[in-house]
Amino acid sequence: MRDVIVSIEHTAGKPRRVSLEALSQAKEIAAALGGSVHAVVLGKGAREAAETLKGYPADKIHLSEDADIDAFLLDPQVDYLESVAKAAGPSLVLVPNTMVGRDIGSRLAARLDAGLTSDIVGLSVDGGKVACVSPKLGGITVTTCAFRGDYGVAAIRPNAFKAVPGAGAGEIVELAKPAGKTYAIRIDDEVVEAAGELGVEEASTVVSGGRGVGGPEPFKTILKDLADALGGAVGASRAAVDAGWISHGHQVGQTGKTIGPNLYIAVGISGAIQHKVGMRTAGTIVAINKDGTVPIGEFADLLVVGDLFEIVPQLTASVKELAAAHT
Amino acid sequence: MRTGVETVLNPFDEYAIEAALQVKEKAGADATVTIVTMAPDSGKEVVRKALAMGADDALLLSDAGCAGSDVWGTAYALAAAIKKYGFDLVVTGTQSTDAGTGELPGALAEYLGVPGLTYARKLELDGTTVRVERETDTGYQKISAPLPALVSVTKSANEPRYPSLKGIMGAKKKTIAALTLAELALDRPIGGDGAKTELIELADPPARGKARIVEAADGADGARIIVEFLKEKKLI
């Protein structure tokens, strides 16, 4: 492996932070491998996104606004990424460890006959080999794996690496449409239920609610308000999802998502093992519960015992006051 | 119609089996559901449960050469087995409970050379078109593709049925065909030898001690305690 290729995710031309984190980390790895950094940004808004990417360390920014990219599911993106990877030669590809990132990564790995590692929180180079660190089995163990072969695809955990601005050569490369491709999975409609929200995998702060929240309403009001004030996302325990209070996409834990935000606030969540395995690698864990003996007290950093319906709104008000004082 | 399900029967696979059975029930009498799994011989017990739910038969890829397979090897071998058998629709779960990575469906679709409609919370067959509502972080997408295709379903897709007593009895008579790697004649090794990654180190995670536990006198006190703590951690 020599070059590092970063698959950039963006929302309407604004690169997502995890992609900037990946780009910053790519520079370190490419330097150790003696190769260059390629950013690949695709779909409507790619050109605008490329302007932001110029402020980060990419040697080349490959882009295409081919209409097929937004009309069909993932396959066109995989084709473009494959073409960049094959032109670059043996390389490491970084994708975000999100639903979409892993979906693209797994398809690309099959195309490149590459190894695939996910939820990566550390990357290093030793003797020309790239090694990836990731928590496994719900954070019970931490593995270091090295790629074999010419290519590797690594899905990197959001918030695990720092986004460090600093321009590279930033040469813009317009990608040619891969020849002879037709696409089968048509996107007939896109329904946005939670506009502008980050997924729980990507957010640096997650405010989650459990059984103690008592119903669907607080997820839309007090928890949402606190998450918004902290610039985070709303999560949930399995109990809350199974009760139908919030959709499955928000679920953290064994049958939901495994996440590692900088700050995790568990509201009315007891912290049973199936929840713990989804969030125990968070940077800081704060729990609010009416019961001081809940299991989450065994692994959280702070457990505040009290009425969540009183504490959460007050906390939101305090966070907003602090934010206002800083501006 | 033939439908494959990945590896052992974890909770996610039950959603896949249920989805496949519902498709079969709507598609009519000549549709069949086949369970496909890569597992040691002991995997038969798990397959029996799937058959008891209502699947018609099963294909068990059981070979010492499979041991130590990574996502790549698993997808490669399963794709070869499914292609050999023939199919219209492959349904998989979204993730496994042990590794929980959710990468198999995409790789499997690639090796099968068919459209991969992932993260389906709803699956419908409309003639030879498969229609899916695909979960996203902000909502969902309506997507569609012609058969043959692969669909991975999430736990929102359905409520898996329990095997009936009749189903459990009937499952004992159903065929579980054994398949070896030699029969698949793969052009490259899978298992530990063929894995595209190698494990260098296993380590314990940084220890997490018990929480500082503080009783809040009231809402304002609770908020104050948390704000002080977050300031101390430089999180706000």
Question: Quick gist of this model?
Answer:
The complex is a heterodimer of chains A (327) and B (236). Chain A has 327 residues and is of the alpha/beta class.
> Would you report the number of β strands of chain B?
10
* Helix vs. strand class of chain B: alpha/beta
Number of structural domains of chain A? 2
Report the sheet-strand fraction of chain B. Answer: 25-35%
Termini Cα gap of chain A: 46 Å
Helical content of chain B (DSSP H or I, runs of 4+): 25-40%
Q: Supply the CATH superfamily name of the largest domain in chain A.
A: HUPs
Strand order of the largest sheet of chain B: 3-7-4-5-6
Would you give an account of this structure?
- The complex is a heterodimer of chains A (327) and B (236).
- Chain A has 327 residues and is an alpha/beta fold.
- Chain A folds into 2 domains: 3-174, Rossmann fold (3-Layer(aba) Sandwich), CATH 3.40.50.620; 205-326, 3-Layer(aba) Sandwich (Rossmann fold), CATH 3.40.50.1220.
- Helices cover 31% and strands 28% of the residues of chain A.
- Chain A starts with a strand and ends with a helix.
- Mean pLDDT of chain B is 89; it is low at 4-8.
- In chain B, strand 5 (129-135) and strand 6 (139-146) form a beta hairpin.
- Chain B has one domain (11-194): Rossmann fold.
- Chain B contains 8 helices and 10 strands.
- The termini of chain B are far apart.
- Strand 13 of chain A pairs antiparallel with strand 6 (139-146) of chain B, so a sheet runs across the interface.
Question: Which helices and strands, and how do they pair?
Answer:
The complex is a heterodimer of chains A (327) and B (236).
Chain A: E1 3-8, E2 10-11, E3 14-15, H1 17-33, E4 37-42, H2 46-53, E5 60-64, H3 68-71, H4 75-88, E6 91-96, H5 99-112, E7 115-120, E8 122-126, E9 129-136, E10 141-147, E11 152-156, E12 171-174, E13 186-192, E14 205-209, H6 217-220, H7 222-229, E15 233-236, H8 238-242, E16 263-267, H9 273-279, E17 284-289, E18 302-305, H10 308-326
Parallel strand pairs in A: 1-4, 1-6, 4-5, 5-12, 6-11, 7-11, 14-15, 14-16, 16-17, 17-18
Antiparallel strand pairs in A: 2-3, 8-9, 9-10
Helix pairs in contact in A: 4-5, 7-10
Chain B: H1 11-27, E1 34-38, H2 44-53, E2 57-61, H3 71-85, E3 89-92, H4 104-112, E4 116-126, E5 129-135, E6 139-146, E7 149-153, H5 165-171, E8 176-179, H6 181-184, H7 191-194, E9 197-203, E10 212-215, H8 219-232
Parallel strand pairs in B: 1-2, 2-8, 3-7, 4-7
Antiparallel strand pairs in B: 4-5, 5-6
Helix pairs in contact in B: 2-5, 3-4
